[in-house]
Amino acid sequence: MPKCLVCYKWTLDEQDIKIKSEDLSLDSSRAKGKISDFDRNAIEEAALLVEKNGGAVDALTYGTTTVKQSLKDCLSRGPEKVYWISDATAGNADASVTANVLAAAIRKMGQYDLILCGEGSSDQFNQQTASRIAALLGLPCVTFANKLSYEGETAKATRKLEDCQEEVSVKGPVVISVLSEINKPRIPSLKQVLGASKKPNEEIKVADLGLKPEDLQPKAVRKSVKGFVMQRKNVIYKESSAADNVAKLKASLASEGLC
Amino acid sequence: MNFELTEEQRLIGQSARDFGKEYLEPIAVELDAKGEFPKKVVQALAKHDFLGLLLPEDVGGAAAGFVSYVEVIEDLSRYSAAVASIVNNHTIAAYTIQKWGTADQKKKYLPGMAKGELLGGFAIYEHGPTPGVGPDTLVAKKQDVGYVLNGKKAFVRNAGEAGVYVVFATTDPALGAKALTAFLVKSDAIGVKVGEKLETMGLKGCPVADITFENVVLPETALLGAVNGGAAISATALAVASVAEAAQTVGIGQAAVEHAAAYAKQRVQFGKPVATLQAIQTLLAEVATDCHLARLGLRNAALLIEEGKPFEVEAAMIKSFLARLGSKMLIDTCQVEGGFGYSETMPLPRLFRDIAGTNLLDAPGDFPEKLIAASIA
Predict the structure, then answer these.
(1) Nearest of A201, A72, A58, A27 to residue B14 by alpha carbon
(2) Which of A125, A208, B134, B217 lies at a 20 to 30 A Cα distance from A40?
(3) Short-list A168, A167, A44, A173, CA closest to A115
């Protein structure tokens, strides 16, 4: 019966983010929060494993003041308890800072057989959190998992790589990052939503994690973010014959190195 | 004062949107084309607790409250107003049993209704010289023990699929509405005959039919509320239903304006997307504004219902508001999409039919302005 921990990130819903036409900057003033997409798969996978094998699922998240908005959403999806770290450092944390904080929190929380993460977050998609946590905790790490099972004390995962699938067997504790295709996250029922209020949550303070100031200093600093807008060229070929139009199109594409 | 939904209400709305995207969006077009009752979807609705949303926990409900309910109806309606209508008609029957039923009636019907094993229907309308709620033709004749029903009810939603109907009949035709009485009638009671399914303009998939009652013998325990107390029950139940139907209208309008806005951003005329043209912006802005104001109004009415406060005037206001603006939302959004919007390859014609069904079928002879005027003059 595995004791599972899922690490998740509370991100802005990208569908609500507008691109300002004047300077391509992002307007997220009306954007709502959501549990990062792949992290929802990680929560679902942990919930499914525990439904099948018994055990328990906790969740852990690190974010700014808005992270508290995520707790009931998370708890409605299966975990019995959620630990949350709300700290201003999360605002500009890179993957290194995030992993330092999460790993320190996990050390404090106790041992887990499986620590699940999404392969990457919806906003930055650095794909580093799982492997960095594993390195900091001295645990094995399995990435790109699109199938997962647990027997005895062993996790069996299928890794989807660029040109092959790899079957991996690893004895826990282990850190595993999952792909979106591993499952379809559940739609919480109304009773699960309302029941989330009755489940416990616990705040962990960054100050209590024993981290040094440099552990909270991002090494990669984001200077700016700009939206990408696809510009139409509005080129219309008006030759009388279709063959001539196609020839012109082909030449145009070739001149841009597209064919 | 706070206009924000609570976290639970917001998450329940999110569940309804996710449900709509996963279960309703893929079937909405086929449902509209074929009009077949979506049994599997109804089972899935029950699994996610949507059919027992208003019912208390002791009968298996979610007890999520009326604000959550209108949020769910709006979000389901964005994807399929027909399915939302099935839920609405079931829920109003369950609500009526919960509010006026005896302990035995609640125990008998509500657990099955919460689980979706027993669908509810609400039989109030009649054909006749004055369309709408009618106390004239369905007569409940008192016997030594119980009643015998004879007559017909019209435009019953969920007809043929419901397992229990809340039926309104007169115990004395001479007294008219004063003798209106509510009964709980099981669909398998001898003498209950569901007529041919009515081909409707919209909300296809939510079955509508007349139900004939031929010497239907009912025990005393079938009586819902007091003898001749049906008018008060139906007035409250229909007012509650009108708030939910307003949410249905707003959901359809919201789906229409979102589709029209997306279309306007990609449709290029005069070298730029039509969304940049003032005339198009005006149409979109007006529909979005109507949706927003209607949503605030219906949430206010829903909160009054949830808190057990008088809500009938606010419910009448939102009904009157949407009676004027509901169909206009679709006319304006079709205008944005021009010829394509008129085409059946686009969703707007279906939404147009569904908004007409929502606004027209329910109490067509109703006059909400009377209640509003009475409250101020």
Answers:
(1) A72
(2) A208
(3) A173
- Residues of chain A above pLDDT 70, percent: 100
- What is residue A114's predicted lDDT score, i.e. its pLDDT? 96
Concatenating the DSSP letter of every residue in B278-320 gives: HHHHHHHHHHHHHHHHHHHHHHHHHHHHHTT---HHHHHHHHH
Whether B259 shows a pLDDT value over 90: the answer reads yes
Is it the case that residue A165 has pLDDT exceeding 60? yes
The B-side interface with A (CB below 8 A) comprises 7-8, 11-12, 14-15, 18-19, 22, 47-50, 53, 62-64, 68, 268, 271
CATH superfamily of B121-230: Butyryl-CoA Dehydrogenase, subunit A, domain 2 (2.40.110.10)
Q: By C-alpha distance, which of A8, A158, A193, A43 is closest to B62?
A: A193
Fold of A3-216: Rossmann fold (3.40.50)
- Tell me if A190 and B50 make a contact (CB, 8 A cut-off): yes
State pLDDT tens for residues B202-226: 999 999 999 999 999 999 999 999 9
Of B11, B22, B47, which has the smallest distance from its Cβ to A193's Cβ?
Answer: B11
Q: How many Å separate Cα A236 from the centre of its chain? A: 42
- CATH number, domain B7-119: 1.10.540.10
Nearest CB to A190; choose among B18, B49, B271: B49
In the CATH hierarchy, which top-level class contains the domain B231-376?
A: mainly alpha
State the Cα–Cα distance between residues B118 and B133, nearest whole angstrom. 25
Q: Which residues of B touch A191 (CB under 8 A)?
A: 49, 62
Tokens of A197: 């209020």
Contacts of B50 in chain A (CB under 8 A): 190
Contact A190 B64 (CB under 8 A): yes
Residue B41: both structure tokens together: 């979807």
| Residue of A69, A189, A197 with shortest CB distance to B48 | A189
- Kindly report, as residue ranges, where domains of CATH 1.20.140.10 are found in chain B: 231-376
What share of chain B has pLDDT > 70, as a percent? 96
CA distances from B20 to A241, B16, B24, B72, B155 (A): 47, 6, 5, 10, 26
Chain A residues contacting B, CB < 8 Å? Answer: 69, 72-73, 76, 187-191, 193-194, 196-197, 232, 234
Tokens read off for A121:
């977050």
Report which secondary-structure segment, H or E, holds A7: strand A3-8
Residue ranges per structural domain of chain A:
3-216, 229-259
Residue A158 confidence (pLDDT) above 70: yes
Residue ranges of chain B that CATH labels 2.40.110.10: 121-230
Instruction: Name B253's Cβ contacts closer than 8 Å, sequence gap at least 6.
Output: B287, B290, B291, B294, B326, B329, B330, B355
Q: How many CA atoms lie within 13 A of A233 on its CB side?
A: 7
Distance CA A134, CA B316 (A): 61
- Tokens 């829903």 identify what position? B302
Least confident of A112-116, B4-8, B284-288, B338-342: B338-342
Q: What is the pLDDT of residues B323-349, one digit of tens each?
A: 888 889 999 999 999 988 899 989 999
**What is the CB neighbour count within 10 angstroms for residue B309?**
9
Contact between B76 and B69 under an 8 Å Cβ cutoff? The reply is: no
